[in-house]
Amino acid sequence: MSILEREVKLGISAERAWGVLADFKNVHAFAPGIKSSPLLSEQNRDIGACRRCHFSVGGMSMVETVTAWEEGRSLTIELSEFPMPFHRGDMTMTITPTSGSQCSARVLFQYNMKYGFAGAILNVTMIRPMMVMQLGKLLKNIEKQAKESPVVATLNES
Question: Which of 20, 123, 124, 146 is deepest in the core (most CB within 10 A)?
Answer without folding.
Answer: 20
